[in-house]
């Protein structure tokens, strides 16, 4: 297939990709409710002429695995979906195309212009939670494979499609696929990273600081009570000092960022009555890690900062806050810019857009790190999205098609294509 034939074949799948994307957006796949989306992806993989199979999450295997994160929730019944496109010839290089089905909660859904789980088309944009992060990427990678297969071709080296769960909290879906035996010479993840390839990412640690106060009637708060919610401010101030130190001398490539390591107090909960001094407060946070820094090292720094806050407060010192861990505990990763997959994907991008994409780092994390740890170079490239994790998330439909076209060219060049046998 020449370039024009590949591009035309993929463009012909625009309607199919849009229909898949709309169905996916309208399936609320937050943590614990991913199955509705996986059923749609099962149909989509089958509609490509592939045989999807389930890779269930195994709590015991995950907890024992290198690179796993702590988790307290039940994963029984949760599954990834994979579909193998077998090699139809010899030569070429094997490939994994990976995307995640889970999304974050809608973040103040009442502030959205439309329901977060209603896929609304406005010009070139499709709105909805997960439209960009990253259901559009799932539609694009599947549409690219569908186009090549419907044109009568097979890869010279095997391709595996993966729709995984729990990318937004642990990455254990991708990790489970690797534990299941998934291997390839490269992995591409169509996260919403347009106009560039993402070759480096920070690590992430989730932690929860549990603070105890002394309850009392609000009328006697100054004499008898100790407010755990107010004490959380002292803890947060100490953590902000840690954040500042971590950003003083970041290593390459994150030295190009003014502030690459971000602390986010994402959830605070505490107290039980407006007229009662809060007896408890939990501060749940996310903090980034530079590549080369382990989650264990960051845990020690977090606990040191919390201990410093307690030592500086007479009341906290008497009952020090406790730090626990649940969710992300992962390292950062870097893929060398000279990796063959970086060159090949860049060339495919340039043949559509007329120029090579930039090679960038991200201050977020993705499932790429699991593949990198397993010796599989993994990069991110995908559709153009706005407001991910925010209000009125949206994705440009034209960029979904363009992403699929680049992936179609890349699969042809990386894996090789041969005429499929009847």
Blueprint of the fold:
Blueprint: H1 3-11, H2 14-25, H3 35-47, E1 52-56, H4 59-64, E2 79-85, E3 95-100, E4 120-122, E5 125-127, H5 131-150, E6 153-155, E7 159-164, H6 172-179, E8 187-189, E9 196-201, E10 203-212, H7 221-224, H8 228-246, E11 263-270, E12 280-289, H9 295-311, H10 314-318, E13 322-324, E14 329-330, E15 333-334, H11 340-353, E16 358-362, H12 368-373, E17 378-380, E18 385-386, E19 394-396, H13 397-415, E20 417-419
Parallel strand pairs: 3-7, 3-8, 8-17, 9-16
Antiparallel strand pairs: 1-2, 2-7, 4-5, 5-19, 6-20, 9-15, 10-12, 10-13, 10-14, 11-12, 18-19
Helix pairs in contact: 1-5, 1-13, 2-5, 5-13, 8-9, 11-13
Describe the structure.
The two termini are about 20 Å apart. The radius of gyration is 23 Å and the shape is elongated. The chain folds into two domains: about 5-200 and about 330-420, 3-Layer(aba) Sandwich (Aminopeptidase); about 205-330, Alpha-Beta Plaits, CATH 3.30.70.360. It is of the alpha+beta class and about 425 residues long. A six-stranded mixed β-sheet has the order 1-2-7-3-8-17, with helices on both faces. Strands 10, 11, 12, 13 and 14 form a five-stranded antiparallel β-sheet that branches. It has a four-stranded antiparallel β-sheet with strand order 4-5-19-18. α1 (about 5-10) crosses α13 and α11 (about 340-355) crosses α13 (about 395-415). The chain is built from 13 helices and 20 strands. A hairpin with a 2-residue loop joins β4 (about 120) and β5.
Keywords:
alpha+beta; Aminopeptidase; Alpha-Beta Plaits; 5-stranded antiparallel β-sheet; 20 strands; 36% helix
